[in-house]
């Protein structure tokens, strides 16, 4: 069954590449709708991948971008958990701060770039700031939502058994809220990844966003497409390889 699924996936993506090549040929050759240099095509993207790998540009860009998003996401995690607990502990903050966080979360990450440049200059801290602002509010809301969904009977049972207030979160609430929290982290990760691209496009020296803009400046549409595919692939690998695996492990462990 797994072999059949693998073959099916290979055929699906092979069909997509073939369709892509046909559309490129039709647009640039048969009908003349576009100039060849303005439309990416599979062979050109493959050449671009080889060129970027041979000179180390793609590897360096991926490594730098992953380091930035890791630092920014860790900061967002710490700050987001703090604000999430703060909201759940105070009805006043839940009534007034939560709507504000929901509103700020809807802001596109690019909106934080001018603040980052004015406050931090064209430095690494500016990019990390954009990543943090792009994901921290989502984490706060995920923590608040996860804790709120914990069945009250768990807390009542823990109090009956003499669990101290200091251990209530670590021993009862956080473990019970973990599945919802991990699901929220998946969304926060996607926000952080998109925010990183916004920051790197505007103010990076090395990174996927900068490499994307270099392709634009050089009018190399195949390099632009290569970087876009790399961004998509990394996003899928992190989501499926880490967050989905952790989420499925937690659910299986709890018989869900």
Structural features, described:
With 256 residues, the protein is mainly alpha-helical. Helices cover 84% and strands 0% of the residues. It has 10 helices and no strands. The two termini are 24 Å apart.
Rg, nearest Å = 23 Å
Describe the biggest sheet? none
Q: List the helices and strands in order.
A: HHHHHHHHHH
Percentage of residues in DSSP E strands: under 5%
End-to-end distance: 24 Å
**How does the helix and strand content classify structurally?**
mainly alpha
Helix proportion of residues, in percent? over 70%
- Count every helix, treating DSSP H or I runs of 4 or more residues as helices: 10
Task: Enumerate the spans where pLDDT stays under 50 for 5 or more consecutive residues.
Answer: none
How would you concisely characterize the structure shown here?
This protein has 10 helices and no strands.
Write the layout of secondary structure elements.
Blueprint: H1 2-30, H2 42-54, H3 57-89, H4 91-105, H5 113-120, H6 124-148, H7 152-160, H8 165-203, H9 208-217, H10 221-253
Helix pairs in contact: 2-10, 3-4, 3-6, 3-8, 3-9, 4-6, 5-6, 6-8, 7-8, 8-9, 8-10, 9-10
List keywords for this structure.
256 residues, single chain, 84% helix
């Amino acid at each position: 069954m797994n072999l059949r699924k693998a073959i099916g996936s290979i055929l699906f993506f092979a069909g997509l590449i073939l369709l892509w090549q046909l559309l490129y040929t039709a647009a640039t050759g048969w009908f003349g709708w576009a100039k060849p240099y303005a439309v990416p095509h599979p062979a050109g993207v493959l050449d671009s991948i080889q060129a970027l790998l041979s000179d180390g540009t793609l590897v360096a860009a991926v490594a730098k971008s992953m380091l930035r998003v890791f630092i920014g996401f860790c900061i967002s995690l710490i700050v987001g958990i703090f604000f999430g607990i703060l909201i759940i502990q105070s009805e006043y903050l839940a009534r007034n701060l939560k709507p504000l966080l929901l509103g700020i979360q809807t802001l596109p990450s690019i909106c934080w770039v001018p603040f980052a440049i004015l406050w931090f200059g064209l430095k690494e801290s500016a990019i990390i700031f954009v990543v943090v602002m792009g994901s921290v509010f989502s984490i706060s809301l995920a923590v608040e939502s996860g804790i709120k969904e914990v069945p009250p009977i768990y807390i009542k049972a823990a109090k009956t058994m003499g669990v101290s207030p200091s251990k209530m979160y670590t021993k009862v609430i956080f473990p019970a809220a973990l599945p919802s929290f991990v699901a929220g982290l998946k969304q926060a990760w996607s926000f952080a990844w998109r925010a990183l691209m916004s920051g790197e496009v505007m103010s990076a020296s090395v990174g996927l966003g900068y490499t994307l803009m270099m392709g634009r400046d050089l009018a190399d549409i195949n390099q632009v497409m290569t970087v876009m595919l790399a961004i998509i692939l990394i996003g899928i690998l992190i989501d499926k390889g880490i967050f989905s695996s952790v989420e499925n492990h937690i659910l299986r462990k709890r018989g869900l």
